[in-house]
UniProtKB/TrEMBL annotation:
<protein>
    <submittedName>
        <fullName>Glycosyl hydrolase 6-domain-containing protein</fullName>
    </submittedName>
</protein>
<dbReference type="InterPro" id="IPR029062">
    <property type="entry name" value="Class_I_gatase-like"/>
</dbReference>
<keyword id="KW-0732">Signal</keyword>
<feature type="signal peptide">
    <location>
        <begin position="1"/>
        <end position="19"/>
    </location>
</feature>
<keyword id="KW-0378">Hydrolase</keyword>
<dbReference type="InterPro" id="IPR028212">
    <property type="entry name" value="GHL6"/>
</dbReference>
<dbReference type="Pfam" id="PF14871">
    <property type="entry name" value="GHL6"/>
</dbReference>
<dbReference type="InterPro" id="IPR017853">
    <property type="entry name" value="GH"/>
</dbReference>
<dbReference type="GO" id="GO:0016787">
    <property type="term" value="F:hydrolase activity"/>
</dbReference>
């Protein structure tokens, strides 16, 4: 019997237009579909041939198996399988049908007996506690030997035994939050303390996002994971040159899981939004969208609404991503009413692979995702999210094709020249930028770009805005009750519209005062060859919170005034979502 990892390892059959035996180099650079099954410990008796037949019409098989190494635990149910090797059985079934097989591994946690034997590997909260999970699993830290050494022993064993087509490494990182969305803080294990001290020379290791050094820690910890990802990628490439890696921002295939959960608001644009962002950051890297057939976390046995499930798949392919259907358990054990629609979309994607190859966006406008605007971020800010989503919704309804740019990648995109694809960049309630981000944006404006800022932006001790390109020389006042900002304007700048004076909340006979005053609603100024636009009120927040179309109309008027362009004109109802791509005959409209 081959023994293997205690970490959950399972495979995914990627139902691609290629066969598994030919053209294996960079198979993932061509359109493909995937079917992911999260196998449970009780699923080791899976009929691999029946499962592969089921998948062949849609798009992966998976298995758990233990290892010879002393820090692993064997699934005792494997002894009941005739071959004792579910992975090899799955691989044989895949190859017989021209399907590819990828392995999914999760290194983020270990069993309690492993944790007790190697406490130095574990995540330690600022108050000195472990991060415990269901079934006695314990979170580990990327700084110590588990990530840095032992994982490579596991990968060495896998790649020696199995000629897999790729790897999906799940949940890798510094786990500040657990499965139950409880925030535990920055890891304070001995390895983290030592590495942070060497990196920051005595600066205090932060506890969480409220601490002064947290942003520096986040940049440092992201760098640790990026370096580890490069090591994993190089290791797998040496052992299995044809295999693709799904892991983080520097992997061969970028990944997003499209799912819905009880604890958060449904944002129906989430799949489109994320694919746009990933393809903006790395336009030549394939994106995989894992469409969950169930509700997330505590409700994983509850099926997703079929139409919402289909929406994940349609938004994925329309933006140039590869669709993956994601289930728990062997097919047919847990009902999923959305399989028929999902299968239809994936088969359509497969049949039109020439259309879906490449598909770079032709948008000339970019909307920047501000710090703290992503659900799940420890420093999540509802105000930033509201401003961002309001502008997203406005531009989507105006049929203004746009890309999403994560604020963390502004400098990288400026250095690669990818920022130069855009003529307009919108910053919604951006708050505090890193100095190098501000410099990159100012340089981009000076070379004929147009930047539009809505909501608050950081000012220095003298109230001077962080972006030098803005038409304001100084912020005079920030009225938090109304989120209104007043500025001193630079000579030569111009204004659009005027603000209304404050109308008091009072008995009706005293509600007056809302007349035009000498304060600009919008300021516009030149900077080098470009221009900058500054809204004195958060129009995105206004549209998101009130639904009043006048906010959207104001934003549209300003976009038109500053010369924002659409690659193609559209005259659809506002609820129609439009994407425009330049690869072949692949313009899309989504309802």
């Amino acid at each position: 019997m081959r023994l293997f990892t205690a970490i959950r390892l399972f495979s995914l059959l990627a139902g691609t237009v290629q066969t598994a035996s030919t053209d294996t180099a960079n198979w993932f650079d061509k359109p493909f579909g995937m079917f992911q099954i999260n196998l449970r410990e009780i699923d080791v008796d899976m009929d691999v041939n029946a499962t592969a037949d089921f998948i062949q019409d849609v798009g992966g098989i998976l298995a758990n198996y233990p290892t010879k190494l002393d820090f692993q635990i064997i699934n005792p149910r494997l002894q009941d399988r005739a071959s004792g090797d579910l992975v090899q059985d799955s691989l044989d079934a895949a190859r017989a049908r021209g399907l590819r097989l990828l392995a999914r591994v999760d290194f983020s946690k270990v069993q309690r007996q492993v944790a007790e034997a190697h406490p130095e590997w574990l995540y330690i909260s600022p108050n000195g506690t472990w991060q415990n999970h269901t079934n006695d699993l314990v979170s580990v830290c990327p700084s110590d030997a588990w990530y840095q050494e032992r994982i490579f022993d596991i990968l060495d064993e896998i790649t020696d035994w199995y000629d897999l087509d790729g790897f999906f490494v799940n949940w890798a990182g510094f786990n500040e939050n657990d499965y139950f969305h409880v925030y535990h803080g920055v890891c304070h294990c001995a390895s983290c303390k030592k590495a942070w001290d060497e990196h920051k020379n005595g600066k205090e290791l932060p506890y969480g996002p409220e601490d002064a050094n947290y942003r520096e820690w986040k940049t440092w910890s992201d760098g640790v994971m990026d370096e580890w990802t490069r090591r994993v990628r190089n290791f797998i490439a040496q052992k299995l040159p044809h295999a693709g890696l799904i892991l983080g921002a520097s992997s061969d295939i970028l990944f997003y899981e499209a799912n819905n959960a009880i604890h958060r608001e449904i944002w129906h644009h989430a799949t489109s939004e994320t694919v746009i962002r990933l393809k903006s950051e790395r336009p030549d890297t394939p994106v995989l969208v894992n469409c969950a057939s169930f509700l997330d976390h505590a409700y994983r046995i509850t099926s997703e609404d079929p139409h919402h499930f289909a929406q994940y798949h349609v938004q994925a392919i329309s933006r140039g991503a590869n669709p993956s259907t994601y289930i728990i358990g062997v097919p047919s054990t847990i009902p999923c009413p959305g399989f028929e629609q999902a299968g239809e979309i994936i088969r359509f994607h497969r049949a039109n692979a020439d259309v879906y190859s490449g598909m770079p966006s032709s948008a000339l406008t970019a909307l920047v995702m501000p710090p703290g605007s992503q659900v799940g971020e420890p420093h999540y800010q509802t105000e930033a999210l509201s401003e961002y989503k309001g502008l997203y919704k406005a531009m989507q309804e105006l049929h203004m094709p746009f890309d999403i740019v994560d604020h963390r990648y502004i400098v990288d995109m400026a250095e690669t020249g990818d920022l130069g694809r855009y003529r307009v960049i919108v910053l919604p309630r951006i708050g505090s930028l890193y100095d190098e981000d501000a410099e990159a944006l100012d340089t981009w404006v000076a070379t004929e770009g147009t930047v539009i800022v809505t909501g608050a932006i950081r000012t220095d001790d003298n109230d001077v805005p962080q972006l030098q390109s803005l038409p304001a020389s100084k912020m005079r006042e920030n009225i938090t009750d109304t989120q209104e900002l007043t500025y001193e304007w630079k000579n030569g700048s111009t204004g659009l519209f005027k603000e209304l004076g404050y109308a008091p909340f009072a008995p009706p006979e005293y509600i007056y005062g809302n007349i035009q005053i000498d304060e600009r609603a919008v300021g516009i100024g030149s900077y080098g060859k470009g221009k900058a636009v500054l809204f004195t009120a958060p129009v995105g927040w206004g549209y998101r919170e009130t639904g009043l179309s006048v906010f959207r109309d104001l934003f549209e008027l300003v976009l038109f005034e500053v010369g924002a362009e659409e690659p193609l004109p559209f005259n659809f109802a506002p609820q129609m979502e439009v994407t425009v791509n330049t690869s072949g005959n692949n313009d899309h409209t989504l309802n």
